[in-house]
Specification:
globular; 343 residues
Length: 343
């Protein structure tokens, strides 16, 4: 795929949680000649071999075909989580913007498309075993995030049928965290004014333990390594699950915080989240809470076997780093990831 000058890679959503890790790894890769990062706002951050273009996927003004011209691969990461009270807005960015990216990849004759799907694309799964990439991807229809991820999975099914010349890879990572994303994720899921320093042992003696609430986590840099490997692996096609062990539940999180888990019924937890969301006090919607309760655990054997991928950090180490970032206002020099402590 690469030329003597190195591969040319375009990354959408290049200044976010995943994008910054992907761009950094690609800029350090000797097989990559140049990286073009697309984002709504160009950052001060300037890694080697990287140029920036201001592009808003929700608008029709940007010429994505021109942006992709001559690229060896496009990594599509751009995603908007907010506003959860206005799903038409996120649909315009995430789904319609994603379709614009796919169409531009075909028009510019880019040979490789790596798309950021998610564990959120999966249909509700079994509680007694992890699922592989063949598990249905219809999402949880009541949650906009899952609905949008699932819709793009169907869009890519058609894209692959119509454009067999493009090697399409779909990454389905678990929840992604790093120190530098802590402030952004606090704002996205907890709100702008939730104090990060609350994530301290002496301030959280108890932690809600909701039956069935568990998830998988992964360090964003480990996910980015899978993206880098997929770009170079000429035989890599289709979907790859990405997650680290162990699965995270209230008992694991309570151990990290030195708190005691206290059982809280699902209905009570959901009612509290719905009330806070309805009052615009909490950005995370009760529909997303419903979806997380139903997410399957993922088997990541395919990524290990076919990509030679292995996470360097356990899920426990990832969350410990993230919690430290919450307390200290972790961030970096992009508009999306700017660090800020509240409280």
């Amino acid at each position: 795929m690469s030329s003597s000058a190195g591969s040319r890679i375009v990354v959408t959503g290049a200044t976010g949680n995943v994008g910054t890790s992907v761009v950094r790894l690609l800029s350090e890769d000797p097989r990559v000649g140049s990286v073009r990062g697309l984002a709504r706002r160009t950052p001060e951050w300037s890694p080697a071999k990287t140029e920036w273009s201001a592009v808003d996927l929700a608008a029709d003004r940007a010429d994505l075909v021109e942006c992709f011209q001559g690229a060896d691969a496009v990594i599509h990461l751009a995603w908007a989580f907010q506003p959860t009270h206005d799903p038409a807005t996120t649909w315009r960015t995430n789904v319609l913007g994603g379709i614009r990216v796919f169409e531009a990849v075909a028009a510019a004759r880019v040979p490789v498309l790596v798309h950021a799907s998610s564990v959120g694309a999966y249909s509700p799964g079994p509680e007694d075993r992890p699922v592989d990439e063949s598990w249905p991807t219809h999402g949880w229809p009541d949650a906009a995030y899952c609905r949008e991820k699932a819709y793009l999975e169907r869009t890519l099914d058609v894209f692959e049928r119509d454009h067999p010349e493009v090697r399409v890879v779909r990454m389905r990572p678990a929840f992604l965290f790093k120190w530098q994303s802590a402030s952004e994720q606090r704002r996205i899921f907890g709100g702008r004014f939730l104090p990060g320093p609350l994530a301290r042992r002496e301030l959280l003696p108890f932690l809600p333990d909701v039956p069935g609430l568990r998830m998988q986590a992964l360090h964003t840099d480990d996910a980015a390594e899978a993206y880098r490997l997929a770009v170079h692996a000429d035989t890599a096609r289709g979907a790859y699950n990405l997650a680290a062990d162990p699965p995270v539940d209230a008992h694991v999180l309570a151990g990290l915080l030195g708190a005691r888990p206290v059982r809280v019924p699902r209905t009570a937890a959901r009612s509290a989240i719905a009330a806070a969301w309805g009052l615009h006090l909490l950005p995370a919607s009760p529909h997303l809470f419903d979806a997380v309760l139903r997410l399957p655990l993922m088997d990541c054997g395919r990524a290990r076997t076919e990509l030679g991928w292995q996470p360097r950090r356990t899920a426990t180490e990832v969350l410990q780093e993230f919690l430290d970032g919450l307390r200290k206002g972790g961030g970096m020099e992009t508009e999306v990831l700017r660090g800020r402590k509240v409280g």
